[in-house]
Specification:
The chain has 385 residues and is mainly alpha-helical. It is built from 13 helices and 5 strands. Helix 5 packs antiparallel against helix 12.
Length: 385
C-alpha cells in the first residue's frame, strides 16, 4: 500500500530527470554533415578529385573529437565572466591577425583568413567571433536586471554592434558582421520582456529597406553593395555594373533540378558556371542534383535541429544556459535562412555559407564546438518529468 502511494505521489509531483545527450540533435548534425560531404565531393571531384572531400572529412573528424573533448571536460567549472573574456581575447586576436603581414591571407580580394607558418590550413576569423558573441552576450545578459534600465539596454545593444563593426571594417565581411549582431539580438529577445524595443527596431529596419529601394529605383547610389541590390531587384538585367552571373546560374540550377533532381554528380551548372559552387552556392547544386525533394529534406533537417535547440533552451535551469543554447540556435537558423534566401534570390547576394554543408574547415569546426557548448550546458540539466 505504501509503495502504491509513493508511485501515485511521484506521478502527481513529477520525477526529476536529467536531459542527458540529445540524440535527435546529434542525429540532425550527423546527417547534415554527411549530406555536406556528399555534395562537396560531387561539386569538386571533376576538378580536384577527392582532395576537398578529404579535407572537409578531416575537419569534421577533428571537430567531432573536439566536441567529445569539450563535452567531457565541460565549461561549468569556468566562471561565465572568465569564459566571456577568454572568448573576447581569442576573437580579438584572430581579427588582429588579419592586419599582420605573413599571417593574413587574401583570397578573391578579401582578407578574412589568417594562417600560422607551418600550418596546412587557414582560419576564418569571423567564425571565432561568432562563438565569442554567444559567450560574451550569454554572460552579459545573465547579469541580474541588465535590461531594467536605459544604461543596461544601451550596453547590451552596443556591444554586438561594436564587435560587428570591427569585424566588418577589418575583414570587409559585412555578412558575418550582420550575423554576429543578429545572434546577439536574438539572445536579447530571449532575455527581454520589453517587446516594445523590438517593435521600434522592426520599424527602423523596414524604413531603412524602403529608403534603399526608393533610392535604387530612382537611380541614386553607386558602389558594389548597391549594385548587388540592383541585381537582386532585376536579376535578368545585364546592364548593371555588378555581375549578375552567379545569381542567374544558381537560379538555372534550381529550376533545372525539378522534383527529383538530375542525380548525384549530374549537375551541369557546377562545371565552372556557378562561382563558389562548393561554398556559398552549394544549395543551388543540391537543388539541381537532388531536386525539390532533396532540398526539402535539408530544410526539414535544419528545422528539426533548430526546434530541438529551442526545446533544450526552454528546459535549462539558468538564464546563462538558456542564452548559450539560444545563441547557437540563432546562429544556425540565421545562416541557414540567409544562405538559402541568397541562393534563391529572395534577398540580395551576400557571402554566407550553409552550416555543416558548405565547404570550409573553420566553419564546421566552430559549429561543432558550438554543439559541444550545448551538450555541456544541457547534459546534466535536471527537469521535472
Amino acid at each position: 500500500m505504501n509503495e502504491r502511494e509513493n508511485r501515485r505521489s511521484r506521478n502527481v509531483q513529477g520525477e526529476v530527470q536529467t536531459l542527458g545527450i540529445d540524440v535527435t540533435m546529434l542525429f540532425c548534425v550527423f546527417l547534415l554533415n554527411i549530406i555536406g560531404l556528399l555534395m562537396i565531393y560531387s561539386v569538386t571531384a571533376y576538378k580536384s578529385g577527392a582532395k576537398d572531400f578529404f579535407a572537409q572529412l578531416l575537419c569534421i573528424l577533428a571537430g567531432t573529437g573536439l566536441m567529445v573533448l569539450v563535452t567531457k571536460v565541460g565549461i561549468k567549472w569556468i566562471p561565465p565572466k572568465t569564459l566571456a573574456f577568454i572568448a573576447l581575447g581569442v576573437a580579438g586576436a584572430s581579427v588582429l591577425f588579419l592586419l599582420i603581414p605573413g599571417l593574413k591571407v587574401t583570397l578573391n580580394g578579401a582578407t578574412r583568413w589568417f594562417k600560422f607558418p607551418g600550418l596546412p590550413f587557414t582560419i576564418q576569423s569571423a567564425e571565432i567571433v561568432k562563438i565569442a558573441a554567444i559567450l560574451i552576450m550569454a554572460w552579459l545578459l545573465s547579469i541580474p536586471n541588465i535590461l531594467a534600465n536605459k544604461k543596461g539596454i544601451a550596453v547590451a545593444f552596443s556591444v554586438p554592434l561594436v564587435m560587428g563593426l570591427i569585424l566588418g571594417g577589418i575583414s570587409n565581411n559585412m555578412s558575418s558582421a550582420i550575423i554576429v549582431v543578429g545572434i546577439s539580438y536574438i539572445m536579447i529577445f530571449v532575455k527581454s520582456r520589453r517587446y516594445a524595443i523590438y517593435g521600434v527596431l522592426a520599424i527602423g529596419v523596414a524604413v531603412f529597406v524602403l529608403i534603399m529601394v526608393i533610392l535604387i529605383k530612382s537611380g541614386v547610389g553607386d558602389g558594389f553593395r548597391m549594385g548587388r541590390i540592383r541585381v537582386w531587384l532585376n536579376p535578368e538585367d545585364t546592364s548593371t555594373d555588378v555581375d549578375n552571373y552567379q545569381t542567374i546560374q544558381s537560379l538555372y540550377a534550381i529550376g533545372s533540378g525539378g522534383l527529383w533532381g538530375k542525380g548525384i554528380g549530374e549537375s551541369i551548372q557546377k562545371m565552372n558556371k556557378i562561382p563558389e559552387a562548393e561554398n556559398d552556392m552549394i544549395f543551388a547544386v543540391l537543388c539541381e542534383e537532388l531536386g525539390f525533394v532533396g532540398a526539402m529534406v535539408v530544410i526539414i533537417l535544419f528545422a528539426a535541429l533548430i526546434l530541438r535547440l529551442v526545446n533544450l533552451a526552454t528546459k535549462c535551469n539558468s538564464m546563462y544556459d538558456t542564452l548559450i543554447v539560444s545563441g547557437v540556435a540563432g546562429h544556425i537558423a540565421l545562416q541557414a535562412i540567409l544562405n538559402i534566401a541568397v541562393v534563391t534570390n529572395t534577398i540580395p547576394n551576400t557571402g554566407v555559407s550553409l552550416p555543416f554543408i558548405s565547404s570550409g574547415g573553420s566553419s564546421v569546426l566552430c559549429l561543432l564546438f558550438e554543439i559541444a557548448l550545448v551538450l555541456c550546458v544541457t547534459k546534466n540539466q535536471k527537469v521535472q518529468q
